[in-house]
Amino acid sequence: MMTPSNRRAFLSDVGRGMLAAGLGGALATDLGFSTAFAAQGSDSIPLGEYTSLVELMRNTPAEKLQPLLAAKILKGETNLKQLVAAGALANAVTFGGCDYVGFHTAMAMLPSLEMSNLLPSDRQPLPVLKVLYRNAQQIQNVGGASTTTLHTLDALEAAEHAQEGDLGEQIRDACRKVNVDLGENLLATVGDSPLDAFNALQPAMQDDLNVHRFVFAHRTYGLVGLLGKEYSYSLLRQCVRFCANHEQMRIEHKNPESPIRALVPKLLDQYKLAGKKLGKRDPGDAAVDELSQTIYRGSRERAAEAVAAALAEGISPEVVGEAISLASNLYVLGQGADKWRTHGDSAGVHSSDATNAWRNMARVAESRHAVSGLIVAAYHAGIQSAPFETPPYPTAEHRALVKVSDAAGLLAETEDAIRHNDQGRATAAIQIYGERGYAVEPVFNLMLKYAVSEDGRLHGEKYYQTVREEYRTTRAAFRWRQVVGLARVTTSAYGYNREDQLGFRAAGYEDACKLLGVEA
Questions:
Q1: Taking the CB of residue 300, how many other CB atoms lie within 10 A of it?
Q2: What pTM did the predictor assign?
């Protein structure tokens, strides 16, 4: 007779095996899907007050779950914060950070909640319901409640792994050895401080180049803030699993180690950045623009060195991060018309989301991790592709298409361009709008409408949030570039589903509108 743990492992592997079979082995691996870290331990992680909601989400198909959640919202039996918290836990229990659609959905949880706060009260549940629908779909795809990846850790066993030396480096080394048990046990020795745990994860986060590795860590730490420190370890240990899973795939594909592993220590030593007190200098608009161009147009090694040199010269980490963000935005604006899709996993969206994650992490992490993290961010900013040789959007030809100049007319022009997937006209209208000094919030409101209704190939929610944040933290001379980028990505995404078929809205969106009694 099967023991409970063997039965759980069997059911988990069956669920994952069914998904891998449906995708095909090669595609499943390419998407970052792995069965290596299936059920371990004996019990699911503690769910506390969210137990009933988590189990409902793990046991119910998406199309049946949505009416139940909508009814609970309308009756006042739950709120959006509780739903996002439960959704994050259901995601963690099921995927543990090692499922492509799963971790993309986890990264969209907090942005969806932020988006809801910007909507009229009757429409506020829409972005949250949309992300929870996606969450439920993928949970059922891997076997539903029969697939449990995260289990309670044995505290006594964890304590036995405590060692002298830098804990972060030990966790990083465990991930390099694909030793998930060791990495998780080491993380458990941190104590009850989420920030200390987050700092301990930084060396592992910075050990390879993957946009999801960075954004998942940033958004997961944000979810800890939402749920509370009692859930800190359960959520953050997913980062250990993600890094170890990524390393395992590197080894299986016989890929070399990331060059960042040698480059970062070299630059820290060369520019004497170890232990250096960070500066506060702002060199001005021209210097920031020049640094952004160096990051965008130079080699990845040159980009990383330019950032190391800037930090050594006493330029503020906030200003350095701003330059990296502007370089990432250039990928959005510079992508040529021959590559029609700028939404989803495009070079610009990936680079912008990764840089936004690093900037946020640098603001809360220890100084040493902020320095090395910004160097990694600069190196990564150019990793998606070579600089585009085409002129950035909008061109003079695009601007010539716009015949209006008043605020209402420009917004109407933009919306018409979005609905016709006319990226050039949409970006031109928004650039002219910004140049004329009109208020930015009506633009964000327009883009929010489509960030909620469209699929966005798993990236719409977090990129919308990225742009809102980067607009606020970019100097006046350049901040509208971020909004123009959002206009382009929004226009690209309109009407396309995850398979790039035209004529679709986000899965579950129209049904959610009907359930709430609002216009779709």
A1: 18
A2: 0.90
